[in-house]
Amino acid sequence: MPLLEPNPDALRPRARRTPAADRVPDLVAHGSPGRLRDELGALLGPGKVLWRITDLVRYASDASPYRFVPQIVVVAETRDDVAAVLSYAHDKGREVVFRAAGTSLNGQAQGEDILVDVRRHWVGVEVLDGGARARVRPGTTVARVNAALARYGRVLGPDPASAVACTVGGVVANNASGMTAGTARNAYRTLSSLTAVLPSGTVVDTADPAADAHLVRTEPALCAELLAVKAVIEADAELTARIRAKYRLKNTNGYRLDAFLDGATPVQILRRLMVGSQGTLGFLSEVVLDTLPLDRETATALLFFPSLPAAAAAVPLFTEAGALAVELMDGHAMRASVSVAGVPADWAELPPGTAALLVEFRAPDLAALESRERAAEEVLAGLELVAPVASVTNRFTRDPVAIDGYWKARKAFVTAVGGARPPGTTLITEDFAVPPARLAEACEALLELQSEHGFDAAVAGHAAHGNLHFLLAFDAADPADVDRYAAFMDAFCRLTVERFDGSLKAEHATGRNIAPFLELEWGPKATGLMWRIKRAFDPEGVLAPRVVLDRDPRAHLRGLKTIPRVEALADACIECGFCEPACPSSGVTTTPRQRIVLRREMMRQPAGSPVEDALVEAYGYEAVDTCAGDGVCRLACPVGIDTGALMKRLRHRRHSAREERVAALAARNFAVVEAAARVALSAAGGAGDRLTATVTGLARRVVRPDVVPAWLPEVPGAAPARLPRTERTPAVAVYFPACVNRIFGEPDGVDGPSLPQALVALSARAGRPVWIPDDVAGTCCATVWHSKGYEEGARVMANRVVEAAWGWTAGGRLPVVVDASSCALGLAREIVPYLTDSNRELHGELTVVDSLVWAADELLPQLRILRRAGSAVVHPTCSMRHLGDDDRLTVLAGACAEEVVVPDDAGCCAFAGDRGLLHPELTESATAREAAEVRARPFDAYLSANRMCEIGMEHATGRPYHSALLALERATRPG
Predict the structure, then answer these.
(1) Quick count: other Cβ atoms within 10 Å of Cβ 553?
(2) In the 8-state DSSP scheme, what is residue 16?
(3) Collapsed DSSP state (helix, strand, coil) of residue 430
(4) Of 137, 213, 547, 889, which one's alpha carbon is 20 to 30 angstroms from that of 434?
(5) Which residues have a Cβ under 8 Å from the Cβ of 235 and sit 6 or more positions away?
């Protein structure tokens, strides 16, 4: 279906076009070359080969400043798939690049030929030896592994700021470290074993006792060359000393030459060389990592200094006192971070020269923490700190909320500064290390260099390890600006190497932007050995050429990504990919980042080009229709970009005037619509699932799938026509039963009262009676309209319900309790843009309470638990996360069951009102991993707090999900 009807050009904002130099000449509307597509499809199966223009474009960008359009994308499912692609590339003289999360800042995950997606089917973690080790598949995020390890009191050593999005495969391949890893806790030091697919197709499991014999038999030339390079290094005392010295600093530039000093056999050397090899020596299909103790007691401070050098000078004092993390942020970084939720707004007023240290001490118990706090206070006493804004305290705290806020600001460094960059500019993120003792000197030198070249860069870093990051923005479409950037990079690399003998890449790995400067840092002898290593593993140059080794001195200026202006809702996106793991459509169509990437590609194209037409044609289903619109991307995005809101706006823009009028009419007559829906559900139940599914399937084909919902067997029958009788006089709250709970009944197999009956009974039982207004029928939180982009209908209903609620609550004196979390969110927040000025004032006086909060905070303390189930698994909804009350679900479940389980892979079910009925494939994909966890064992109860999400989870798992309030009513029911 076209993106817009009838005028696709209406989608485009008014903005200048990107110069033709940025357009890819061979980007054609029909996608991949036919022969390449056919051959790989025959080899792997067509379902594993992505070839359409939308596929190529959405994989063309990552978090780096580069953009390379692949010829084709392969979604590998097994090691055999990987080996087959490598064999094909050898035979055909093609190149292969592996891509997992696409969070790389240096272009390692981009290719111009065959790009292999190794995230989608490569997720899994197995905890070994009571948590001492973890076996991890490469597409698993660091955060997901740590969630599994937390219950064992363990954690991974590497802790990159992008842990919620970056994958373990990428972390090992780049030797990414993060805030606390330094040189002792990184992947190189904590890797126990790995399984690799070499460019030849040979599979090596380094944990296998027979691995060396296997490698000698299958790869004799490689084994001989590894031992030969080892002999060269060990025979050169000066080179050996140089290598050891280089790795006393954080250093991920080039291949890990100390592998030849630390490993005795070819397999031992290979295992170490793979760390930091950036996908150029082989594919890591599995790794086993040693874990570290998770010290849960924490004291943290955010300390402000008058200048960056002053802050840097204080770093060694805290490291000597035992701080695990000492993070540096300059004023520019902190001012930009005010876009991050929870960061004080007055940080925007920080003076330009201000800098801060985020210092954290961790300990296994309170006694140890108190000892470290005393040492920290002694350091504080000798510092001259400043308090440039009211929110500054300059003190250590154990408050987890405050600590979480500090770390959010620090981890959002790249995205927050990137979001604040001038529109249309490209963001460069550089990462280097100097001896920690020279950190203050390096800060001063960096500031001088930036000023000399006209850059106002932001600086932050892992100061305890002498590791600094800085960001700068320039216009990649302007040749003069590119030259300015090039001159800066030349000067920066010379400064780092010649003045500080530092590392040009401390933790982000070489990548395309430092490859030309590799020899500057390492010298010709060591660099020559790196070329020799690459030839030994990959003599045909199949894997990721130009990512680590490149003789072109201007290679870092090739493929720079321009950033065309798009809609204001999304224009701040730097394509970091933090949103992708949370997105429910990531496994079926596109992610928020990809939706924005596709929009930007439309803007790059000349008006009316076949490529643009093809992108617009596909965008309707790929982006707009299959977006759940749940806003979880906003929660994941450090700068709060809500791509779902953009998709809703696009849904509105493709509606005809007649469709908008019909939607508004439905809002005005919603009582009739509501009653008709109950009748239809009753009729459908009588007709049976098979007949109903047949009828709705025919209607979907005749009309269109995005209008007529599919029928699922899990859809319950109609709710009772009458709501429970309540009295207004004794009520302490107004109870607003959501329209979904007035229309849909409870699932089969759930005995007892309806949800409205249960909430009324619970409230009375706790001495907190509620009142259901007589005229509640026909009112709604308006979500059903604004989620579909029917703005006039949303305005009608939003203003009606606020006016009604104002009367129900006696002018806001009583709270409004809403029994569906999505409707509580809708009534509390999402209707506000649709209100008139006067009704917005009324809304501001209303108190909207999610029924979870009402039950947990107001009712539960007054109730007596009479019976408990053995176990319960819960499904937290997206709306709970937005409201910040998902903890109440586990509290209620804990009152009703001895054991409460929150699945590690719990996420958005993508049912999104009726989106899961319109596009069942969306919910099936979104829930697959959570459903697998739920089905792995039986539970006595399956609990949530949103009717449509419960239908979605029942469809996904085959288990009877229902509201936690029903379980609470049963647990407290007398008799």
Answers:
(1) 11
(2) P
(3) strand
(4) 547
(5) none
The stretches of 434-478 forming alpha helices (DSSP H) are 439-452
On whether the CB atoms of residues 878 and 630 are closer than 8 A, the answer is yes
The DSSP 8-state label assigned to residue 810 in this structure reads: T
Burial of 898 (0-12, 13-18, 19+ CB in 10 A): exposed
Burial 843-870 (b: 16+ CB within 10 A, else e): beebebbbbbbbbbebbbeebeeeebbe
- Using CA atoms, how far apart are residues 252 and 465, in angstroms rounded to an integer? 14
- Cα–Cα dist 614/619, whole Å: 9
CA–CA distance, 939 with 666 (Å, rounded to integer): 41
Place of tokens 């843009």: 833
| Residues in the chain, total | 975
Q: Which tokens hold the place of 143?
A: 């955060």
| Among the listed residues 185, 166, 199, the one whose alpha carbon sits nearest the alpha carbon of residue 362 | 185
**pLDDT averages per 10-residue partition of the chain, 975 residues:** 41 40 60 95 96 96 95 97 97 97 93 96 97 98 96 95 94 93 94 98 97 97 98 98 97 98 98 98 98 95 92 92 92 84 86 91 94 94 91 92 88 80 89 92 91 88 91 93 97 97 96 97 98 98 96 96 93 93 95 97 91 94 94 90 94 91 91 84 59 41 46 72 93 96 80 92 98 95 91 95 97 97 95 96 97 97 96 96 94 97 95 86 94 96 94 93 96 92
In the chain, the amino acid numbered 579 is: C
Give the three-class secondary structure for 812. coil
Distance CA 742, CA 758 (A): 13
Cα distance between residue 277 and residue 256, in whole Å: 8
- 684-703 burial, b at 16+ Cβ within 10 Å, e below that, comes to beeeeeeebbeebeebbeee
Backbone torsions φ then ψ of 972, nearest 5 degrees: -110, 5
Token pair for 799: 């203003």
Distant-in-sequence, close-in-space partners of 775: CB < 8 Å, separation ≥ 6:
804
Contact assessment for residue 480 and residue 565, using Cβ atoms and an 8 Å cutoff: no
Q: Which helix (H) or strand (E) covers residue 641, if one does?
A: none
- d(C-alpha 438, C-alpha 441), whole Å: 5
SS3 call for 205: strand
The CB density around residue 102, as the number of other CB atoms within 10 Å, is 27
Task: Return the amino acid letter for 926.
Answer: A
Q: Under a CB-based contact definition with an 8 Å cutoff, are residues 967 and 941 in contact? A: yes
Look at the pTM and tell me if it is higher than 0.90.
Answer: yes
Q: Quote the longest CA-to-CA distance of the chain.
A: 92
Q: Which of 825, 678, 855 is nearest to 758 (CA)?
A: 855
Cβ atoms < 10 Å from Cβ of 92: 14
Per the CB < 8 A criterion, the answer to whether 490 and 357 are in contact is: no
The number of helices, as runs of H, and strands, as runs of E, in the chain is: 41, 25
Q: What is d(CA 639, CA 642) in angstroms, rounded to the nearest whole number?
A: 9
Domains delineated in the chain: 297-508 (3.40.462.10), 665-856 (no CATH), 866-972 (3.40.50)
Rounded CA separation 379/132 (Å): 35
CB atoms within 10 A of CB 263: 17
- Calpha distance 498→434 (Å, rounded): 11
How many Å apart are CA 549 and CA 797, to the nearest integer? 61
pLDDT of residue 608: 84
pLDDT at 375: 94
In what helix (H) or strand (E) does residue 963 lie, and over which residues does it extend? Answer: strand 961-963
Helix residue ranges, H only, 25-124: 34-44, 53-58, 79-92
